[in-house]
Amino acid sequence: MPARQSLHRLAASFVPLALLAATVVASSIAMGADNRPFALSLRSRTETKAGSGRFHTTTKSSEWNPKETAVIVCDMWDLHHCLNATRRGGELAPHMDAVLKAARDRGATIIHAPSSCMDSYKDHAARKRAQAVPKAGKFPEEIAKWCYKIPEEEKGKYPIDQSDGGEDDDLEEHRQWAEKLTALGRNPRAPWKSQTALLTIRDEDYISDNGEEVWSILEHHGLKNVILMGVHTNMCVLGRPFGLRQMAKNGKNVVLMRDMTDTMYNPARAPFVSHFTGTDLIVEHIEKWVCPTVTSDQIVGGKPFRFAHDTRPRLAILSAEDEYKTEETLPPFAAKYLGKDFSVQFIFGSETERSDIPGIDAINNADVLLVSVRRRPLPKAQLDVVRRFAAMGKGIVGIRTASHAFAPSIGKPTPEGLDAWMTFDGDVFGGSYSGHHGEGPKVAITAAEQVASSPIMAGVDASKLVGNGSLYKVNPISKSAGALLIGTIPDTPAEPTAWTYTRADTGRSFYTSLGHKDDFENPEFCRLLRNALIWAAGSDLQKPSPAPAATAAM
Fold it and tell me: Apex CA 265: angle with CA 257 and CA 8, to 5°?
């Protein structure tokens, strides 16, 4: 079989699924002219206070005129040297094509930028259009070059190690893939010849991988807004002459469409998280230091795209307490224990306004919630986010002060204009917190009777647990709660220190009065908390994920 025919058959193996996905997505797009502006929700990260290293996730509504907007598609090649990257690109492309169609139909300018593939398009009308655009009167300095960093990025630390090129293939599969590429007459290290055929290029689009050409197109049409999509986020999307850094530093209103992208990241490298968490970390880096991000549903409706093998539960961690410094202990815990299995979003209380938790709406997108909050009545709209989450029957985990998360201080009324949830402990955790014993000896911890079968206790040696904070008075817990751990101090009745509870809304809850800063130094506590989050999410993360299909070309 000729190499070209074999290559077409290889690519065609993914086309039926691609066409089906594109049809489903495109069906939500109204036919005919659509002159509405793009109603975008621009997501950014702002430091809670200078030097804290913690960030609020904020969104800003913005309307962009499509006729003043360019959509640049970065390096969505036909084939890639990394088989998994090829697979993910093939899965991404049909959804991206629907976005391009919707954006084009509303008047946006589409620029296809498959780098190093211009020879394949030398006779294409869209390539000739790009070459025919008058050169801009003045080019930004070094617009024709890669940009490896902009000054804002100096304030942060790059989040992943991509020094190995980021390939995440199984070694044997990668060897076989390289052999297949060689048999097709492709360079196994750089096999791309064109953009994937799963993306439509119209004659009225543009094709260019040249920074000066792309800038000239933007200037010629008065395009002040740029949406970047494509691969790979941590390399080409950021660094190309038409990439995010160049657009941001040269004054364009630029955003990354964060669900229409993928990284080159190998989980065997630092920070040793899943591939998809690696992408999340790069997106966070971009939102902190480069530009905001948006999602495809803001153009085509429906829901944001998610890769089929990204099955991570989405965890929101709500930290707003001054007593135990969980804003310092929870991030390293999450990085070490959750990065392979969860998609994690941190939500921190305001540093200046006690009754404000900026970005709390992120809970709406979560599957499970971890609460570490102490006596924070909130504006009703903010507390309603938590109420709605619980009412949906989703998993909730609470540590330490979560038992009195949204109640005012004892003996004080709820401040005017704020809302309190006085019964949060009983409603959500089945508890009845009434205070705590004074400082004294550390709390001895033992396993409750008949808990050996609990998945939350799997791998946890209760004899190595100790309570570093004062013992909470929580008796009596609900009769339907299941005690897992018991805490004791001398001359004092024992108290449950960890239990499960199935709420009236059928959601799973876990609570532990552990959570002192020193508790996080104990691997047994960290394992307990991780297990509790897995259980509350209704997940069995101990089972290996199924392998992706053997072959799926872009």
Answer: 75
Nearest to 93 by CA among 111, 74, 70, 116: 74
Distance CA 90, CA 218 (A): 28
Q: Centre a 10 Å sphere on the Cβ of residue 450 and count the other Cβ atoms it contains.
A: 9
Please report, for residues 41, 286, 348, 396, 553, the alpha-carbon distance to residue 363 in angstroms, rounded to integers and kept in the order given. Answer: 16, 21, 12, 11, 36
> Under a CB-based contact definition with an 8 Å cutoff, are residues 511 and 429 in contact?
yes
Q: 146: which 2 tokens?
A: 């890669």
SS3 294: strand
Residues 460 and 385 in one domain: yes
In a domain, 368, yes or no: yes
Burial, 11: exposed, middle or buried (Cβ in 10 Å; 0-12, 13-18, 19+)?
buried
E-strand ranges in 232-324 read: 253-262, 293-294, 314-320
Omega before residue 377 within 30° of 0, cis: no
- Write the pLDDT tens digit of every residue in 136-188: 999 999 999 999 999 999 999 999 999 999 999 999 999 999 999 999 999 99
Residues in a beta bridge with 400: none
Residue 187's domain is classified under what CATH number? Answer: 3.40.50.850
Same domain, 347 and 276: no
Its domain, for residue 89, covers 3-48+66-300
Same domain, residue pair 393 and 509? yes
From residue 507, how far is each of 317, 369, 388, 478, 501 by CA, in Å?
A: 17, 11, 12, 15, 8
Q: Note whether 122 and 203 are same-domain residues.
A: yes
Is residue 332 located within the same domain as residue 287?
Answer: no
pTM above 0.85, yes or no: yes
Tell me, what CATH number does 425's domain have?
3.40.50.880
Closest CA to 419 of 390, 450, 376: 376
Instruction: Write the pLDDT tens digit of every residue in 452-469.
Output: 789 999 999 999 999 999
Domain membership of residue 452 (yes or no) is yes
User: Which residues are bridge partners to 293 per DSSP?
Assistant: 43, 256
